């Protein structure tokens, strides 16, 4: 699959944005600008808010309820940017009405709801897509290409760090706040998606805020590889870095370095094949190891607005009748890992009062 | 305790260095240069190697065995730089002969041996010291001072990263190779030493080398704090960084940035006291949180050779009859955490063939 | 003088923005948001452009000419954001009508025009202010404070680098495009303003574009200090860095490092006083020199929109009847240095065909 | 010419090192280790110093004077590491005796002396080589290769910065202390050597130390290119960076970044050809400009000791009877530019008391 912005030759699809709060305006603006789409309506219980947004996005209709929207407007698709606990209800109604559905992350408030949405959309033959915006950035698209092309070889380890002085939030812990970014990216770039064989979380709440503010997530993958995510709300320095170690090359993504966001290192450790039978294990081990100290390469990245590409991909998926690049199943995998992480934390807490401890979780 | 190099007014103490291999020459050179010490003998089964070293360090005597050394030479102390599995035997013999003992890390090949050494030295009234060289660097001494002074407030989390393209070694995994540095530093800087309430390790051997090449170590501390260590032999970039988050300030130690090795950030999240009783939990939580965005300060560090200070501290501890700054108990704590980490890895492997998984370990 | 945003208790001053092209909208938006100001009119020959801007800024009147504006609208002040060659005519008309004038940089197309504007405003008792936006950023304000307080001691040298892959422009060379930023900042932060004793420019046009794309500007200051500016359109890496070396401390401003924009180094070279008469010159020189290797300090910076502060300062200057922080004379000094730089380049070119060479210029 | 360390199959050449002070030991050690050379003698008026050095380098003969050396020892070549003012006398005597000569930088105390040395060696048919050590580092060799291969296209500009908190020296100013490194590197990497069409220096002595502590050197090259060097003893931060802008690519050498010392940017500004005749100059100019925003590439560098390669190249040049890579003429060009810079500074001072000002100098 090639992901690229392109001009549409099709008639525009008709979309309504549901939710005019924090994220809805970004969606509405991008749908309004896209030649793939015609923004037909803004839906929000707060009609003032909906009207204010409508004025900035070409004056689509304003409606106060999803029922009204589905009943009175001819639309092909909806984009849901409401609180997570309402996603399931709205999406199920829209799917039942035969609409395609784009949902802001997380897909739903729990994976049971999420799975129902995925199955309903499949049964109805409509597209269910998750707005994993990061996946449509130039850097992540390039990483996905590099992994797909085999440039890095086999994946050995992935280490992701996403830390900064963050808002300690009332509803969610640091895992649910920050790790969805890392998890949705991993699911997007790994050929076959993110399918850890286990999930283990370590968290700390040293401020006694009632939720983890520092978190580590270990995700053993198949073939002995290990993905690890560090999320932290208490760090005075901001880091957004992912290292993807491969058997051929290693990629470093430093998202806060605009001058060299991606670096591909042709450096690594090679273990040779055990061609010769040797008596002395120590020598053999030593003999098998070699180092590559080759060039580093930093690919140029094009610049475009990720949300613009995302709405364009939504249209392309609908027209082609194929799953979206970040489809419902992808979002469901992310949700399941987050739930497994929470169970890992909670059962640790259950068995040992003072500290969170890791447990092995059957994931997914 | 103040740690500083000083000129001795005492008669020099008499030392022998045992082991003339990789590390012994560094020790011998520093003992030879020190006014606190008189280097009396070099002991190594390989007499050629011992003689070569003796020629560079003022021509001390050369002896082939510990027995001969203890029998025929008048010494106050020994410094042991032999393979780890021999530490216990040599140290016990030296202690039995009433000598003070400095041991290269690790203290011993297992904690039972290590504990015997600690107890024997205590019973004999001799000093048992570990050569945790990193603890005598200007940066670590400054960090210890800052923590002791309360400058950072209460410790909330510690995140240490020590990764590079490393030698995949025949004998030890990445935990035993690299983590002793982080652990001995933590033990040195934390008031009261490193006393985790649990130890959990995640490792990966994606090259099928027979041992972990990528490792994560979680060490929940008392009061909800969490220490975490990332060690990695497969990283094309070299990082040596430790972040110590405190309730007042946060310290970042970037050992590869000679221009600003230490940074103390007066930035952080504060949770206020629940002075007012509020009905709405969400609001109350929100109201309690505030951010400090103050100055950053990078203290100047003096420059000196860590090993020079270490041998000087060894002499000072002997003369004062007080435990060394990195004494046997400290080294035993480090050893115990490493053993707990290995058990964590092994039991995971036992219960699940393909991946290492974390387990909760009673530590120490 | 303390520069700080504050809420106004005065009736709003009435302003018109002249020019609705590239920069005018930024000015109009900030005047519209300010409680100090009432945006009365947008003036542009292109009425469509003016109307479009008016719709976004609270629907002020739209007028097509400065004459109409001055004749038909009651205003206190104007803000001019038209091409540089028109600044003089518009400003002189506005001053003649008793209006205060804010001018986008450069003040005028030449210093004769600029001087007329300064003198006319002085005679009329109106405020003439230059929109040197950079001077109202948190970093530059902090630098100005540090220099004013004597924190750095006496200024020894200033080295400013402003390079990136820039637009090779049809009208101006790299000096006129980029150096105004550095020069207006220098004028703002140096106590007494920028008063070089000479101006010397070196430029290169290796692409044969007809104008310098790489430029160096040397500005010897009083007391033996030297300011130097490097501007470059052809650099693949982007650097915005200014080093201000003082006799007590040295400040480094790295504008592209949001995590540590300012660093104050308590490091430097000290030459002692020649208290003792010594025969041996070499020893004496050696003896007089010492080094400070003290702490580094990075002050926290507040965050606000520079243009918001600038329009607020414009109002405050008018109300207090005092010169603006970046007044007409400041802008005239900047203009004069740029003209001297051009003469330095041109006379070099005149006497030597192939290369630009430096000449000494009587400045200002 | 390919520069690479190789094992010699020739009989070793016989060398004497003259001068056992600061730099001589480095030379003696490398000659002693080389299979190309036999270190025959150490020559120093201070026989104790010479003897101490001889003990560490295989016990060559020790002699007190050059006359004695040339009279009593069979040697092929000498290496001179004595104070600059003695280079001429020693070298002329050695050349007269038919010896090859390696001279520590600077070649001589003035260019008249230097020229005599070059001409004497040419007449005698002996090799005169300058120890421009930096030119034998992996980074500089790679840069030279890249320029020779045309990878960067035509050189547009070179900007070199070499600043740190330096020792204010009794004998030399910052130009003579630091710029020889930059100049010898430029001479080495530029195809055809360093041949500026003018030399202009700006210096500042804000500490009143009697010599420039901050210096800028402008070196217009042929074809409109410009080289510029910034040297500074008063900078609290250490920078060693050279940018070489080419018409095809731009190279950045950051010598203090061991993880990415060289970066080659496929980024730049292109001015197209004026294929179409256009009326509107402004549009035409605009149309002609385009930007390349391609990949960045960081070549791997091998690791070896530069001095080891240098002594090996000395031997290879002698055996092949070809000029050394850093031959006497190269050193003479460097010396001439330094002298021109000093004249530029001095004449400025003569005509204007307070400040150094730039003058155009006929160079070389």
From TrEMBL, chains A, B, C, D:
GO molecular function: nucleotide binding
Alphabetical list of Pfam families matching this protein: GFO_IDH_MocA, GFO_IDH_MocA_C3
Entry keywords, A to Z: NAD
Ranges of residues in domain Gfo/Idh/MocA-like oxidoreductase N-terminal: 13-132
Start and end residues of each GFO/IDH/MocA-like oxidoreductase domain: 141-251
UniProt feature coiled coil, ranges: none
The protein's name: Oxidoreductase, Gfo/Idh/MocA family
Species per Swiss-Prot/TrEMBL record: Arthrobacter rhombi
Lineage of origin: Bacteria, Bacillati, Actinomycetota, Actinomycetes, Micrococcales
């Amino acid at each position: 699959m090639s992901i690229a912005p392109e001009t549409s030759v099709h008639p525009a699809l008709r979309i309504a944005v549901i939710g005019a709060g924090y994220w809805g305006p970004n969606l509405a603006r991008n749908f309004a600008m896209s030649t793939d789409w015609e923004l037909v309506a803004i839906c929000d219980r707060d009609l003032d808010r909906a009207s204010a947004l409508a004025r900035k996005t070409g004056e689509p209709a304003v409606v106060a309820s999803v029922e009204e929207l589905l009943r009175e407007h001819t639309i092909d698709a909806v984009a849901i940017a409401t609180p997570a606990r309402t996603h399931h209800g709205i999406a199920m109604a829209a799917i039942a009405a035969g609409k395609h559905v784009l949902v802001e992350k997380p897909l739903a408030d729990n994976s049971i709801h999420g799975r129902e949405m995925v199955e309903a959309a499949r049964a109805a033959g409509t597209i269910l897509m998750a707005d994993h915006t990061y996946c449509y950035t130039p850097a992540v698209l390039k990483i996905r290409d590099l992994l797909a092309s085999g440039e890095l070889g086999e994946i050995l380890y992935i280490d992701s760090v996403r830390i900064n002085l963050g808002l300690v939030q009332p509803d969610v812990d640091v895992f649910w706040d920050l790790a969805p970014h890392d998890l949705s990216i991993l699911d997007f770039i790994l050929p076959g998606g993110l399918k850890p064989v286990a999930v283990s979380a370590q968290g700390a709440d040293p401020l006694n805020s009632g939720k983890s503010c520092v978190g580590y997530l270990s995700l053993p993958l198949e073939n002995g590889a290990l993905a690890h995510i560090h999320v932290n709300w208490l760090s005075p320095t901001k880091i957004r870095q992912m290292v993807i170690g491969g058997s051929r090359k290693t990629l470093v993504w430093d998202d806060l370095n605009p001058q060299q966001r991606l670096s591909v290192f042709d450096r690594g450790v090679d273990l040779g094949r055990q061609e010769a039978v040797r008596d002395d294990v120590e020598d053999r081990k030593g003999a098998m190891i070699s180092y590559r100290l080759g060039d580093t390469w930093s690919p140029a990245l094009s610049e475009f607005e990720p949300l613009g590409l995302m709405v364009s991909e939504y249209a392309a998926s609908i027209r082609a009748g194929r799953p979206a690049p970040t489809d419902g199943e992808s979002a469901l995998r992310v949700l399941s890992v987050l739930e497994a992480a929470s169970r890992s934390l909670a059962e640790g807490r259950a068995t040992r009062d003072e500290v969170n401890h890791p447990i092995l979780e059957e994931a997914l």
